[in-house]
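Internal tracking record. Fields below are filled automatically when a chain is submitted to the structure queue. Please do not edit lines marked as system-generated. If the sequence contains nonstandard residues, flag them in the REMARKS field before resubmitting.
Queue: standard
Priority: normal
Entity type: single polypeptide chain
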Amino acid sequence: MKCLSVLLAVTLGPLVAGCYGTLCPSLDDYPEIQRATFYDYRSPPGGRSGHLQPFNTWVERPSLAAFLQRGIDQGGRTRLVSEYGFQCTSPSEAACRDCLTCTRSVRTEQIYLMWTGAPDCENTGEILVRAHIGPGSSVKAITYWRTWLKWSPPEPNLWRDTPRER
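SYSTEM-GENERATED OUTPUT FOLLOWS
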């Protein structure tokens, strides 16, 4: 009988383990720059939940620009490359010698229920980030969430608080 239980554990263990997916990291486990790029999500009580910004189109992101501005203020423009992983280039035009255009992409993931009912962390595309720095201390940030997800905005009349980005 002992041999049978060992045999079942060895044989069925990997099969059962394969039925359970992997959980996405908690929001706090993502790097700070990645959290700053995520699209804001609302889940109003009794209403349709969804992301506030549309997918598959360029969207201006004032909160991301403010985040980048704080980073530049604290660590200089080099922080965009060294800490946040941007690739930056200077424009070819002489009109703005202190301007930079910085780009990077961020992988996105969401939890979905697998056919077994277990949660699984699934890749939902990538967020392309473009930041325009300068002239002077001016920062503008735009993002493009390239995804297969269909965008459906939440019902704004059911929000209990003011919509804001992360």
